[in-house]
Write a structure and sequence with these properties.
The chain has 7 helices and no strands. The protein is an all-alpha fold.
Length: about 170
């Protein structure tokens, strides 16, 4: 499966798609910066942002934890051969993402929750957990993939994490 993936494809994956996914985690702050003229739109706007963040989080969850099973999908193991022994145990929030995202965001299901505190997501902690995994991944990624904006992202990841924790 990985034999079919060229170096060019892997570099494009890292430079464009992977960077886009991890960069989206920094956009959680948008939830607090948008002003809404109408409470009805406020809920829709917040839901759109939450869904967007959860979509990218789900993509990263699959990238880091799913076993390669599709020749068109990208997985951390494609880039770091011993990723299975390096990847951290899933945190509570990562397990929550895995457990909830399909039923609540990605599919129309009869188990979909309606409103209330039980539906809230701790996006702050989820973002921290995913960025920590991203840091581990980038620290072990071959330098040939760490150029341009991805290198800049890696070099600033500790600063991002510090700022987020405050």
């Amino acid at each position: 499966m990985t034999n079919q993936i060229t170096e060019k494809q892997k570099k494009e994956m890292m430079f464009h798609h992977f960077l886009y996914e991890v960069s989206s985690l920094l956009n959680v702050n948008l939830l607090t910066k948008i002003e809404y003229p109408n409470i009805h739109y406020k809920n829709i706007g917040e839901n759109i942002l939450v869904d967007n963040i959860l979509l990218h989080s789900r993509n990263l969850l699959s990238f880091y934890y799913q076993k390669p099973n599709n020749s068109h999908f990208s997985f951390a193991k494609h880039f770091i051969e011993n990723w299975n022994s390096l990847k951290p145990t899933k945190t509570f929030m990562i397990k929550e993402l895995e457990r909830r995202v399909h039923n609540e965001c990605c599919h129309l299901t009869y188990k979909r929750l309606i409103g209330g505190d039980h539906k809230k997501w701790n996006l702050h902690q989820l973002r921290i957990d995913l960025l920590k995994i991203t840091k581990l991944f980038l620290e072990n990624l071959d330098k040939k993939y760490l150029t341009g904006n991805l290198k800049n992202f890696k070099d600033n990841l500790d600063k991002y994490l510090e700022a987020i924790k405050k």
